[in-house]
Amino acid sequence: MAIDEYISLAAKVFVDRMTDLHHLCPACVVPVEAWLSAYRLGTQPVPEPDYSMSGSCLECAREWYKDTGLGDLGAAVQKARGERWKIEQELGG
């Protein structure tokens, strides 16, 4: 919707139990905020929502990559991981 209407969406950042950052769009933040509310109250909530392994709103990012002509998000992630691995190898990590 944001792409079609040329508008920006405010992202919300959360940190999970592993201290990983996650950037979520307004639609995808709803279940996370509901879980956090129950967690703060000390109730026995359902398991913590899956923020996605990419650290961002995965389905929205996939759609954005496709709609803007950037290609496949999965391929971009694999390329970035490969580049990071190469750097680590060069630095002896």
From TrEMBL:
This is Uncharacterized protein. The lineage of its organism: Bacteria, Pseudomonadati, Myxococcota, Myxococcia, Myxococcales.
